[in-house]
Design a protein that fits this description.
Blueprint lengths: L1 E6 L2 E6 L9 E10 L2 H6 L13 E2 L3 E9 L11 E5 L7 E5 L3 E3 L6 H4 L3 H14 L7 E5 L4 H12 L4 E5 L3 H4 L9 E3 L6 H8 L5 E6 L6 H7 E9 L12 H6 L3 E4 L7 H14 L1 H5 L7 E6 L3 H10 L5 E5 L1
Parallel strand pairs: 9-10, 9-12, 10-11, 12-13, 13-14, 15-16
Antiparallel strand pairs: 1-2, 1-4, 3-5, 3-7, 3-16, 5-6, 6-8
Length: about 325
């Protein structure tokens, strides 16, 4: 089968053996894949958790049909239309754990379905489970114009947030954040953005920050969060190291939480998928929670899809179809 692999000469489409499902695995005939920032790094040889390096089939988000079941797989049958996340997505066939997938709603095509699994699981876990957002509270999403950021704002609004603030350093994308739930959009490179947040919250700061930027905004986040508020760190788009004001962190008694799928067990991931099904799945099915598609590429042009992502001018998901 054809697959997009990081090899000795970089990332390229090549032929590999079709996988066989074992245990609780499901073999998926992939129809469409969503690109994610972590994929971009892996096309350059970077590792993401335990995955990456020469020989790696790239990709982590897909939609397709069940082609074959492992002996212990339950809950789906051959021919079912599904979507999910996991390694080795950029291929004609991929393997998925039987509980790390969703049934794709009948009102979505494969291109639409493949945009959702990473965003809804990552941000439900960050905003609701770890962020403990309650109706009537305020939230700031750092890096809100990314696909997962757009979903975070929608989930926050759906769960009853009184005030949703989104940040983006790009003027065009910042101007569109209100389409996805933002009541206020700020530029995190503007030295005055913290003052804007404090003004919007009566001087107290937000109840919750979901931070995909980290690095350069770490101390500003502390100033923008209310006393006894929460910061959930889900990314490091701004860098992995920075100065941190420990005194301000202690003085404001902020609960600072780190989350990532990279170190989670399959049992933990299954629980996250179950929580999404129980809490927000009806909103996915009714399309209250959805992501825009910026551009769709055929699999043969997946390299161009990554060039488009690296140019960083898109809003919404970049999709590749097989």
């Amino acid at each position: 089968m054809k697959a997009y692999i990081y090899g000795a000469n970089g990332a390229e489409i090549t032929d590999v053996a079709k996988p066989t499902p074992k245990g609780t695995q499901v073999l998926v005939k992939v129809q469409a894949c969503g690109l994610n920032r972590a994929d971009l790094g892996m096309t350059k040889g970077h590792v993401h958790g335990a995955a990456g390096g020469v020989g790696t089939v790239l990709g982590m988000e897909w939609a397709g049909e069940v082609a074959e079941l492992g002996p212990d797989a339950k809950g789906v049958k051959v021919g079912d239309k599904i979507m999910g996340s996991g390694a080795a997505a950029f291929a004609e066939y991929t393997l998925a754990d039987h509980r790390r997938l969703f049934r794709a709603p009948s009102n979505m095509n494969f291109e639409e379905a493949c945009t959702l699994p990473v965003a809804i699981t990552t941000m439900h876990n960050a905003v609701v489970t770890n962020g403990a957002l309650q109706a009537g509270q305020s939230v700031l999403i750092q890096g809100a114009s990314s696909g997962v950021g757009l979903m975070a704002m929608q989930i926050a609004k759906f769960k009853g947030a009184k005030l949703v603030i989104g940040s983006s350093t790009d003027a065009m994308r910042r101007g569109r954040l209100t389409e996805f739930g933002a009541d206020l959009a700020v530029d995190s490179k503007d030295p005055g953005w913290v003052d804007q947040v404090l003004q919007a919250t009566g001087g107290e700061g937000v109840d919750l920050i979901v931070d995909q930027v980290s690095g350069p905004v770490a101390n500003q986040n502390l100033k923008a969060t209310r006393v006894k508020g929460r910061i959930v760190n889900v990314g490091r788009l701004g860098g992995t190291h920075a100065d941190f004001n420990f005194d301000l962190h202690a003085a404001r008694r902020i609960n600072y939480i780190g989350v990532t799928f990279r170190t989670r067990t399959i049992e933990e991931i299954r629980e996250i998928f179950d929580e999404v099904r129980k809490d927000i799945w009806p909103a996915v099915e009714s399309r209250k929670l959805q992501l825009p598609i910026d551009k769709v590429y055929p699999f043969a042009e997946i390299g161009k899809a990554f060039e488009h992502m690296e140019a960083n001018k898109h809003l919404g998901k970049i999709v590749v179809t097989l």
